[in-house]
Amino acid sequence: MAGTPLLDELRAALGTDAVLTDPDLLRTHQRDEADLCPAGTPLVVVRPRDTGEVVAVLRAAARHGVPVVPQGARTGLAGAANAVDGAVLLSTAAMTEIREIDPVARIAVVQPGVVNATLAGAVARQGLYYPPDPGSWESSTIGGNVATNAGGMCCVKYGVTGEYVLGLEVVLASGEVLRTGRRTAKGVAGYDLTRLFVGSEGTLGVITEVTVALRPAPQESLTLVAVFDSTAAAGTAVARIAADGLTPSLLELLDQIHLRAIEAYQPMGLRTDAQALLLAAVDTGSRAADDLARIAEVCTAAGAAEVYSATDAVEAAALLQARRLAHAAMERYAAQTYPEGNGGLIIDDVAVPRGALAELLDGVARIAAECAVPIGVVGHAGDGNMHPNIVVDRADPASVERSRRAFDEIMRLGLALGGTCTGEHGVGLLKRDWLAREIGPVGVRVHQAVKAALDPTGLLNPGKVL
Amino acid sequence: MAGTPLLDELRAALGTDAVLTDPDLLRTHQRDEADLCPAGTPLVVVRPRDTGEVVAVLRAAARHGVPVVPQGARTGLAGAANAVDGAVLLSTAAMTEIREIDPVARIAVVQPGVVNATLAGAVARQGLYYPPDPGSWESSTIGGNVATNAGGMCCVKYGVTGEYVLGLEVVLASGEVLRTGRRTAKGVAGYDLTRLFVGSEGTLGVITEVTVALRPAPQESLTLVAVFDSTAAAGTAVARIAADGLTPSLLELLDQIHLRAIEAYQPMGLRTDAQALLLAAVDTGSRAADDLARIAEVCTAAGAAEVYSATDAVEAAALLQARRLAHAAMERYAAQTYPEGNGGLIIDDVAVPRGALAELLDGVARIAAECAVPIGVVGHAGDGNMHPNIVVDRADPASVERSRRAFDEIMRLGLALGGTCTGEHGVGLLKRDWLAREIGPVGVRVHQAVKAALDPTGLLNPGKVL
User: Fold this and answer.
1) What is the mean pLDDT of chain B?
2) Selected residue of B104, B158, B424, B465 to mutate for chain A interface (largest A Cβ count, 10 A)
3) Interface check A412 vs B, CB under 8 A
4) CB distance A270 to A322 below 8 Å
5) Option in A188, A425, A426 nearest B422 (CB)
6) Residue A68 in contact with residue A459, Cβ under 8 Å?
7) Is A449 an interface residue toward B (CB < 8 Å)?
8) Considering CB atoms only, which of A246, A423, A439 is closest to B186?
9) Domain FAD-binding PCMH-type spans what residues (chains A, B) (predicted)?
10) Burial of A431 (C-beta count, 10 Å sphere; 0-12/13-18/19+)
11) Which B residues in the span 194-213 are in contact with A, Cβ-Cβ below 8 Å?
């Protein structure tokens, strides 16, 4: 009952309907979508509606020395939103206001709980474009996207979430409200605190408002598929597309395990005999047909067995939909491989320089064989950012151990190839050790110093990232 | 003679030729190009050649409690590189190695003293493009560009320096070497320390290596000039170009004072009877002619008296050159207005949301009249980022006072219009008070906490920014 006075204070500040302790609800809020990450038992879920209520939550939690874990839609894949024991889970689910869309300044101002697809749709109706499109875009929130610096399929041409964040309102651990950044196209007034909060996974403050940059609507895109007899050849094609000066608006890779999983999940005539499939799109207007033809040539020269263009927008959309189903299809595949709820998926995330992509793909295949675990590979080939997805039998300690070993080997390989341990999913709980290895002792010390400067008592999302 | 033991240590570490105390040389290194900013008397200029020597300089300076001021080419416009009394001026002039250009990863790795134009030329020879193009690009260094997050004319389409910085090597005040960021297209491993150092004006660490992202070479551009009878009409045209979904690769404004100053400096047939001139370019390939025609239509509808397209690349280059001469021409104008070295120029830098550009331009004209000082306006209209340049008689305290008042009024107006006190030149010494006003007490406190976390003894560039 240590929490009771805190709960009373929260109810007084937010009203009883925004302070939730129902055990089922606590359980559904306990973790994000990362497999094999620990999650504690929270005290309460709170749903503040505005900045003032977030301030009240942080002040109350600080008074009682109770940690606060910010949560968006809990679609994260690194455990960053997982509960810690006794924590206040601060959900932004009730902060869903789109405050402004300005077509001249090309900005939008939103509360953090606005769903990515909702914002994207709202600006599209005004002829504008909010590019960041993480796989979770239909359910994940802008606040969560910003807190994890989410990527997606558009990044190869349009960049990640952080490149669209102009300014933030953040409630600090002290309960003070900080405004960072600006509404202008350019600005260099002081340290770039905006980017410090982007990707900080709720460890430095609670984002309560986001000002994002928008672009004019892109032109229609043309799409092709290239089928390869080896994943490494597909990797080589990606490197040559970049070397050739081409900038596709999408360049995704699916390996055979994924092709088969998707086809089993939703039959759509994919070439399940292929070792790898590259999906490319261009949106360069009147140049698009030429650009697509050049990509086709490069793929053929790199060894593609077959290249075909989508004949119309419907076929192109179907191909994109196949790619979007990869995650769900692999979860189904894992569940069917190890029934009774034992089939799990460790969704990894590694990025290497484009030129090292073929080597990464070969290496992952070798690791899968050595560790005797199924690993499917899918991802944003054009960015060198791949998701090796390891299928694990949660009921079998040996399978879990082999999966963890494969995970570590992939991380080791990625760093050895000049890469990073996370291209877009973040560190959370899953990759704290690998972050430390990647950034080294000086990097860790600087991270700790920055964390201590912003959150000296460790109130916010303790144990995550660092 | 307090400095003598330090000088001995520096000479022992770097060799005598890299430790310079010649009074003339100290004097030329005393300040950057900002007018009316104080500069102290330095102890020494050091020119380390590599990271190890930078470490040696910082360790020695820390032992003796002597401040260190990092300097690139001293082309800054806010006094950030100005000496403080007794300081070690750490020049990166001898760190000029381009270590790598990788066309597949689309990155370059350089030492900080590489001149912007040198890098731009080197990557262009490989069919690549390093966009950031500050006015000083022929002399300013990549290290200085990163430390100030420099802008330029390309930003309206291609963004500022920070958007191209993937990773850094930084020597901290402790003498430790920190590596931030990555070589990959995407990466979210830990806090974005790269962006924390970008724009921190030498107050958090000394940049010793920069990894930048490159783009494929842009397509050829087409250029037009629109002549306006009022600056506000030109501002309206800019807002409408944005609202129309157009993205020019350049959209610059020159007012009558600048047109006349440039024409006097180097006659090139500019329309000196115009109140304002908009210079626009598009590099959208086969769409370019259509896009340029639409920009012309928008300008005409917004009240342009005349619009004409450059007939060829030579004429387009001449128009761009006219714009590039604006700074030098205004300095000449100031020198001729107040001879005997008394004519100075306060080069201001303010950015507002594009929709407020017309209001900003009207306001600056009103302020010039009220304060009875000549103010010419030039700048990156497409970003809402203008440079109101105030001509001052340094020998006349009344003129200096009126100029400072005009400067303050412009800053106040910029903030009132939802803008920022600096779009691209930075804070340095010139705008510390305005930074504090813009970011408020919570912002200042967070800045101080970050500074203390990275540089607890205040060794690096003391008194700048904060």
Assistant:
1) 96
2) B104
3) no
4) yes
5) A188
6) yes
7) yes
8) A423
9) 38-217
10) buried
11) 195-196, 198-200, 204
Arithmetic mean of pLDDT, B184-203: 97
Q: What token pair was written down for B179?
A: 């590596």
User: Alpha-carbon distance B146 to B110, whole Å?
Assistant: 12
Calpha distance B124→A93 (Å, rounded): 48
pLDDT per position as a tens digit, B286-322: 889 999 999 999 999 999 999 999 989 899 999 999 9
- Delimit the CATH 3.40.462.10 region(s) of chain B: 222-416
Residue type, B315: E
The answer to whether the CB of B199 falls within 8 A of the CB of B145 is no
Residues carrying CATH 3.30.465.10, chain B: 98-216
Please, which pLDDT band fits residue B36 given cuts at 50, 70 and 90? Answer: confident
Q: Is B336 on the interface with A (CB under 8 A)?
A: no
**Cβ distance of B423 and A184 shorter than 8 Å:** yes
pLDDT value for B4:
87
Q: Which CATH number fits domain A4-91: 3.40.50.1970, 3.30.43.10, 3.40.630.40, 2.60.40.1120?
A: 3.30.43.10
pLDDT digits (tens, 9 = 90+) for A24-63: 999 999 999 998 899 999 999 999 999 999 999 999 999 9
Read off φ and ψ for residue A214, nearest 5 degrees.
-120, 165
ipTM value for the complex: 0.96
**Spatial distance between the Cα atoms of A420 and A405, rounded to a whole number of angstroms:** 18
- B287 in contact with A at a CB cutoff of 8 Å? yes
CATH code: domain B222-416 is 3.40.462.10
Give percent of chain A above pLDDT 90: 97
Measured between beta carbons, the chain B residues lying within 8 angstroms of A380 are 186
Determine the pLDDT at residue A3. Answer: 56
Question: Closest approach of chain A CAs to the CA of B240, in angstroms?
Answer: 7
**In chain A, which residues fall in CATH 3.30.43.10?**
4-91
Question: What tokens does B108 get?
Answer: 């370059």
**What would the two tokens of residue B370 be?**
């009220």
pLDDT at B1: 46
pLDDT tens per residue, range B380-439: 999 999 999 999 999 999 999 999 999 999 999 999 999 999 999 999 999 999 999 999
Q: Compute the average pLDDT of residues A433-456.
A: 98
Chain B touched by A398 (CB under 8 Å)? no
Map tokens 């395990």 to a residue: A257
- Correct CATH for B98-216 of 3.40.1190.20, 3.30.465.10, 3.30.1330.40, 3.10.450.50: 3.30.465.10
**Interchain contact, B186 vs A383, CB within 8 Å:** yes
B39, B80 in Cβ contact below 8 A? Answer: no
Contact criterion met (CB < 8 Å) for B352 and A184: yes
C-alpha to C-alpha distance for A382 and B462, rounded to whole angstroms: 43
Residue B106 sits at the chain A interface (C-beta within 8 Å): yes
Length of chain B: 466
For residue A464, pLDDT over 60 is answered with yes
Rg of chain B over CA atoms, in angstroms? 22
Mutate to test the interface with B, among A99, A191, A215 (most CBs of B within 10 A): A191
| CB-based contact B191 A176, cutoff 8 Å | no
Name the minimum distance, in Å, from the CA of A188 to any CA of chain B: 6
pLDDT at position A1 over 90: no
Share of chain B above pLDDT 90, in %: 97
pLDDT digits (tens, 9 = 90+) for A109-162: 999 999 999 999 999 999 999 999 999 999 999 999 999 999 999 999 999 999
Q: Flag if A172 and B446 touch (Cβ within 8 Å).
A: yes
Cβ-in-10-Å burial (0-12, 13-18, 19+) of B86 comes to middle
Residue of A nearest to B382 (CA): A185
Q: What is the pLDDT of residues B359-373, one digit of tens each?
A: 999 999 999 999 999
Q: Quick check: A228 pLDDT over 70? A: yes
